[in-house]
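Cont'd.
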Amino acid sequence: MAITIKDVAKAANVAPSTVSRVISDSRHISEKTKKKVRQVMNELGYHTNLNARGLVQQSTKTLGVVLKYSESDAWKLGNLFVSEVLQGISAHCQQHGYSIMITTGSTEEEIYKDVGRMVQGKQVDGIIVLYAKKNDKVVPFLLEKAIPFSVVGKPMERMNEIMFVDNDNMQAAKDATEFLIHRNHSRIGFIGDNPTFQVIQDRVEGYYKALEEHGIRRDASYVKFVHTPEEEGAVVEEFLIMEAKPTALVISTPLQGVGVLKALHKRGVHVPDEISLVVFNKTLITEMSIPVLTSIDTEAFQLGYEASRGVVELINNPDTFKRSVIIPAKIEPRESHRKLTKDNSSVINVTME
Amino acid sequence: MAITIKDVAKAANVAPSTVSRVISDSRHISEKTKKKVRQVMNELGYHTNLNARGLVQQSTKTLGVVLKYSESDAWKLGNLFVSEVLQGISAHCQQHGYSIMITTGSTEEEIYKDVGRMVQGKQVDGIIVLYAKKNDKVVPFLLEKAIPFSVVGKPMERMNEIMFVDNDNMQAAKDATEFLIHRNHSRIGFIGDNPTFQVIQDRVEGYYKALEEHGIRRDASYVKFVHTPEEEGAVVEEFLIMEAKPTALVISTPLQGVGVLKALHKRGVHVPDEISLVVFNKTLITEMSIPVLTSIDTEAFQLGYEASRGVVELINNPDTFKRSVIIPAKIEPRESHRKLTKDNSSVINVTME
DNA sequence: CAAAATAAAGCAAACGTTTGCATGAAATTT
DNA sequence: AAATTTCATGCAAACGTTTGCTTTATTTTG
């Protein structure tokens, strides 16, 4: 059995309570005793049993992180994003002495159970949810139990009762589209995945908004959704056979971006000479591809960091205003886009900035 | 305050101990009482306080995972590998009712502290270390404290006191090299990162072994190490100016693989027509590149799963034999290699299988 | 110099479980 | 029918802390 506070007390000839107060550096203990007790603690190799402390303090200084339900390849994609978010959470937790417990479930039901265990089993003081989706049971559960939590992403409902951290996806898509418009593109396509996700809808909206503000007619045939992996080929095909085919595409995930790149490559269409690509989420994938993809950096690390900050604030003061943080996304110009000449002709001479 | 076992006991008109035994489904309790107590538990919404249980049972059913020290981009690389390992651990933990706590530290010192807290604070029953490196303080600490733990990777020392899970890197490199030899390559280069890592040394050895067994003279000028990121260009250059330049390369990380691919691309050298590439670690990166890289799948998920299995066994029976598990690596033929004709001439006509 | 204020440390209850042992009732054996 | 075994439950101690209250010793104050 390990050394307990009582062992230390006995060896130092003081009461257990005194040892406890030395640990918390209480000012009710004389420096002399502190010194003595600390010495004994070192000699004996004492370490606080956090279970016991957690029991009496009703707090474990641990945050639970709910990892997204991993369906097929969406997970692999999320992977890079998720681990960067996780790093942000880690960084903040480290700074504030919190531990991190993650869910292990791989199905929706398992994850829900994990959360129940963490929360009701008092294993964690708060929860970070990565991230919001519809028909989700976790968020309503946390709301009902009045657990401090924050969400990375935009909650589907009850937004003002929930603390969340997200990008302004509409704005980001608008920026991306304008980025292309400013480079004289006017026939700009959009490729997204599942349009039932709020994030995709926001992005489509931002895309349309940019077009409209620049006097370009919105045309639904320029907006395509890829539902199954590897379907990019078909979508690219559809674009290429169009009479007025797009000179640029805004694409909503790195994986799709690479898929599109491949499909174009296979058909001998050169990027960026013949078509420009801008992709959401700057990740290793976008940076590693040939050509390097111009992307929209969603600052995953920062998202995680802020989410963690949010919960911890909520833990320390449950009445904290449930603010939502919007992390600005930033265009990272790389090699997959080019500037067209004013008359939109297909100049082969690449004009990059 | 939440519902406790005592509240349930009172409401069900039994003793707390009875409730406890109902929870553990003890056979000393009659079905009738069980039914009654369970009903009350549901009505009241009772959930075990795992802190309290942990305290008395001296076990938390939680595993600590020590994430690799994240230096520069090595971390980003590890990222994909690490998260796949993590998924393997998750899967096993889920099956066996274990929770996962991860380290949050980003420096060696912070990580060491994290481990101390987890272990001495009795937050976890065991530890999984990802992964072995020299001058590591964590493994010696765990050995000294006699904590159940396993390592993903090959420990530097005291190997037979430690349970670890790894690939046979020598064999894998030999297989990869032979894979190329069987396709009539004889001038095969090797690119690795930091040669002070055991894993790299093993791979070089396997590479040499394959050559020797097939009567190809080992030549140190065919073996290059890339120490800083983005240095692949220089190395590729060195290879290309060689009189007898290699027709194939074995490369030790996906990131380097893509780096090499880029460098070759920039110099107009076509893969696989002019040079074949085989890369260690099948990841999203290798699968997404153009061309898709022929890789050596190190089965990261499986590594994690087995590591988890190991610790749990050790927890349940501390005298378990400290076996080490070798997960076979498997070549995944893709698009970055080709078969040469017998006479080694540079046939442009691609002959893939 | 007595009274009051302050400082330092100890006592004991509490946190919510689990579990060895004791108890009493019912069922089985002799 | 008494003695024994089995079954179901309760009692109370433990797990290792923290913390409100009390006690004792010391210092300050009037």
